[in-house]
Design goal:
Blueprint lengths: L5 H5 L8 E2 L2 E2 L1 E2 L10 H13 L10 H20 L8 E4 L2 H16 L5 E5 L8 H10 L2 E5 L9 H8 L5 E5 L11 H10 L3 E5 L11 H4 L3 E5 L10 E5 L1 H6 L10 E4 L4 E3 L13 H17 L1 H19 L5 E4 L10 E6 L4 H12 L1 E2 L1 E3 L4 H7 L4 E5 L6 H18 L2
Parallel strand pairs: 3-15, 5-6, 5-7, 7-8, 8-9
Antiparallel strand pairs: 1-2, 4-10, 9-10, 11-12, 13-14, 14-17, 16-17
Helix pairs in contact: 2-10, 3-10, 4-5, 10-11, 11-14, 12-14
Bound molecules: 4'-deoxy-4'-aminopyridoxal-5'-phosphate.
4'-deoxy-4'-aminopyridoxal-5'-phosphate binds next to α4.
Enzyme class: transferase
InterPro entries: Aminotrans_V_dom (IPR000192), Cys_dSase_SufS (IPR010970), PyrdxlP-dep_Trfase (IPR015424), PyrdxlP-dep_Trfase_major (IPR015421), PyrdxlP-dep_Trfase_small (IPR015422)
Cofactor: pyridoxal 5'-phosphate
Amino acid sequence: REPRSVEEIRGDFPILSRQVHGKPLVYLDSAASSQKPLAVIEAMNAYYRSSHANVHRGVYEISEEATEALERARTKVARFINARQSKQVIFTRNTTESINLVAYSWGWANVKAGDLIVLTTMEHHSNLVPWQLLAQRSGARLEFVPLTPEGLLQLDVYARLLEQGPKLVAFTQMSNVLGTINPVKEMIAQAHAAGAVALVDAAQSAPHLPLDVQELDADFVCFSGHKMLGPTGIGVLYGKRELLEAMPPFLGGGDMIRSVSLRSSTWNDLPWKFEAGTPAIAEAVGLGAAVDYLSALGMDWVRQHERSITAYALERLQTVPQLQIYGPLTEELRGGVVSFSLADIHPHDLASILDQEFGVAIRAGHHCAQPLMEHLGLVATARASFYVYTLPEEIDVLVQGLRRALEIFQV
Ligand code: PMP
């Protein structure tokens, strides 16, 4: 089958034909949240129009349809990441909730005073703060893999930290600031050899790279629907079955129980043990449609497209005077996320000019990675990020906007 053109793909995304400040929208903030194709919007719409009811409880037709829709979405996600069984896919609200689920449920059951947890300096707050909370409550220690000047993990330091026998290692597969793609398969194998459990923050990688949880041999993998063409309000925790089976519940309430008496309860089977209360059914349906859409494009194509657009962006951005790019300068080491600063212009001012004069949406700030900003000696960067619908012409508009900002600020 012929790959579809990016122009044709753009036609599937209604928002991309709108204007902002009288200019065509140039959306370069997909690392924060992606836009949604019609297939996703319509799947959710159709679900609400025809099949909505609460799940798992009703014995009437539409409740059974809603339950099937939810479970079908789970199966799609399981196939997308090559999980062995769909019960290993737990629906959460987002990556943040998935990591918190592990930190509270697995963490509190397994981590004791003096135990070591290994993280990295490039983590998003959502892969730092839950472990800080666990360490504070349990008396565990946190250590961090530092970065090379190029923005790669110092793997020699990682190896030395593993010699101390950590209980858990948790790292991102792709940095949301530097774009760095970490060698997670090797890092997981090393963690296992050292007796540690390995959690992968796949918030930035699941949308952009082929992800095979069995090939990685990851113990836990966390990601968010809204960054991979799906809706907000739905995320995934994948876990190895033995680990999930042994873990106590995270949230208590309806659906996660087998039986309840006034003073005690027993737990439902996987995955429902971890899905207390009415789930985000329409959102799961939307995520299922997103996964179908990405699978039809092919994740190899997605990666290939982003590699070429990133190579183009790196090349063009380096023609702008006084522009500094953070992270590796070769596209095979990074995903479609480019953080930069321009002269001494504040990233927020830059983002404002780009928005108002050029219709370009980029992110400015600390990107929920304040320790990484500190490591870079910055408080904020500007960040442009790309996805399946990004065109080289949009990079040209960005570059034009950056040159205009230099003129406005006369630097
Ligand atoms: N980890 C990384 C690497 C991210 O980029 C993000 C989102 N910016 C998150 C975690 C958190 O995702 P969410 O806000 O959807 O929970």
